[in-house]
Amino acid sequence: MKNLIVFGGTGRSGLAVLEQAADELDIQVTAFVRTPTKIPGHVRSKILVVQGDVLKKEEVSDAIKGKDAVISCLGNGFSLMPTTVISRGIGNIIEGMRENNVKQIVVVGVAFLLPNGYFTPFFMKGIVNDHARMINILKKAKDLDWVIVAPPEISDQPFTNEYTTTLNKNAPEYVVSTQDLAHWLLRCIKDDKLMNESCHQMVGISSKLPLKNWLSTTSGIS
C-alpha cells in the first residue's frame, strides 16, 4: 500500500485527487491543508487530514514523515495575482522529502511552460512565473524522482478516461477534465513503470470534451 501525501488539496485539482484517492484500496492518503473544512465531509472522513502551512518548513517535514510519495497541486486558486507560494512551497516540500528519504513527487504545473507551450497572456504572467520558478527548483533536484504534469485549461467535468498524455509537449486539446487530471496523477504514483517513463520530464495532458461542455464550466490553471 502506498502512503501518499497531497499538498494543495483544497484547490480543484487537489480535491479531485483526494476524492479519487479516498476510494483507492491500495492508497493511504494524507491531505496537508490550511483549512480542513474546505474538504467535503464525505472525503474528509476517509482520509487523514493535517492542518498546516506549506511555507513553514518544520510543519511540512513532519507531515511528510513516513510517506512514500507526494502529489503537489499547489496553486493560487482563481487569483491571477503574482505569488511565490508555489515555488517556496515546493522548496519546503523537497527539503522535507530529503529529510525523510521520500523519493517520488508528481506536481501540477501549467501548459504555458512546456517546450512548445502556448503564449502566456500578460494577465497570467504573475502566476505562470511562479510555476516557472517551481520547475527550476525541481530540475535541480536530480536526487528525486519528479514529474511535472502540465495541463492547459482545467474544466470541472466528470471522469472521461478519454485523455491523452504527451512527453515535453502540449497534448492535442486545450482542455482537461479535473477528474482525468487527478486520475493520471494517481496512476503515476501507483505505477512504477509510468513513473520511470515520465521521470524528470514534463507531461502534457488533455481530454476529449465537447466544446459546449467545457466552455460552460469554470476553468483555469489551478
Describe the structure.
This protein is an alpha/beta fold and 222 residues long. It has a single domain (2-220), classed as Rossmann fold (3-Layer(aba) Sandwich). Helices cover 35% and strands 23% of the residues. The chain has helices spanning 12-22, 41-44, 57-64, 85-99, 125-139, 178-190, 192-198, 211-215; strands at 2-7, 27-33, 48-51, 69-72, 104-108, 145-150, 153-155, 163-167, 175-177, 201-207, 219-220. The chain has an 8-stranded mixed sheet with strand order 3-2-1-4-5-6-10-8, sandwiched between helices. It has a 3-stranded mixed sheet with strand order 9-7-11.
List the helices and strands and how they pair.
Elements: E1 2-7, H1 12-22, E2 27-33, H2 41-44, E3 48-51, H3 57-64, E4 69-72, H4 85-99, E5 104-108, H5 125-139, E6 145-150, E7 153-155, E8 163-167, E9 175-177, H6 178-190, H7 192-198, E10 201-207, H8 211-215, E11 219-220
Parallel strand pairs: 1-2, 1-4, 2-3, 4-5, 5-6, 6-10, 7-9
Antiparallel strand pairs: 7-11, 8-10
Helix pairs in contact: 1-6, 3-4, 4-5, 6-7
Protein name: NAD(P)-binding domain-containing protein
Organism: Ciona intestinalis (Transparent sea squirt)
InterPro entries: NAD(P)-bd_dom, NAD(P)-bd_dom_sf, Polyketide_Oxido-like
